[in-house]
Amino acid sequence: AVKVRKRKSMIENYYNIDENFRMLGALAQDPNFRRDVHDWFNLVILVPIVALNVVNWDWKIISTLKMTHPEQVWHGEYFHEFWYLTVFYFVVDLLWVTLIPGTVRSPMTIIIHHSIVILYVMIPYQYPALGWCMGACMSVELNTWFLIARRVLNSKGVNPWRTFEEVTGCSGDMGEIAGLKIKGTSIGFYITWVSIRLILYPALIVPFAKTYIDNSLAMGTYVNLIVVAPVIQVALTCLNIKWSIDLFRSKMKKADPAKGL
Fold first, then answer.
1. Mind spelling out the 3-state secondary structure of the chain?
2. What is the pLDDT of residue 259?
3. Are 103 and 96 in contact (CB under 8 A)?
4. Rounded to an integer, what distance in angstroms lies between the CA atom of residue 205 and that of residue 232?
């Protein structure tokens, strides 16, 4: 009997998953002008957001590995530019997804996520010294960029690890360049997924909690806005772990379907 799964995983928006939750490959994209325009909007605007985030950190200190707290390597010289562009992006994207149907496969997920982020970034706006918290969390947008880029560059849903001709359907230099783009975005996606979502995000829970406690002691009360930071960070970490389990479980089933993994 075929098992019917009631809840849809986020990874099914990007991968072809069968009824047994086995990954069949990348999800082929049907022609959708609204989605394509929205994807390119994200690919373009996320570049300056990621760049502004990068220039707010002191990479000389980071390269020495001598820091004991993330706050020590955040100078925030361009924090306001970074903050305003980030808010602009999430507000515009929220309105876009809400008002234009067919833009994304799971609009409610995006609406809830963007609404939370917009409220979340109000904390560093009220407390600029906590700008490093926003910068650390927003590093995940690099992974988002790769996630969207691999879908745009691989709209046919082909296996990126085949030969260039098999991947692109064409031979010669153009086929090789196209194949490299697909492979490059796939490698970038998995590297940033693991390093940011599975390593950095959990690692931020303790410094976020310490920041909340230190600021609470300075304010003389534990009832303050900063409590939102560690709470949401725990929730986002759990969500990333859940998505990762879905992703790798489906890949394991694809690799060895006979064992029912």
1. CCCCCCCCCHHHHCEEECCCCCEEEECCCCCCHHHHHHHHHHHHHHHHHHHHHHHCECHHHHHHCCCCCHHHHECCCCHHHHHHHHHHHHHHHHHHHHHCCCCCCCHHHHHHHHHHHHHHCHHHHHCHHHHHHHHHHHCHHHHHHHHHHHHHHCCCCCCCCCCHHHHHCCCHHHHHHHHHHHHHHHHHHHHHHHHHHHHHHHHCHHHHHHHHHHHHHHHCCCCCHHHHHHHHHHHHHHHHHHHHHHHHHHHHHHHCHHHCC
2. 40
3. yes
4. 9
**Residue 24: pLDDT band with limits 50, 70, 90:** low
Residues 259 and 163 sit within 8 Å (Cβ to Cβ): no
Q: What is the pLDDT of residues 160-176, one digit of tens each?
A: 666 555 555 555 544 55
Tokens describing residue 89:
């992006």
**Dihedral pair phi/psi, residue 77, rounded to 5°:** -60, -30
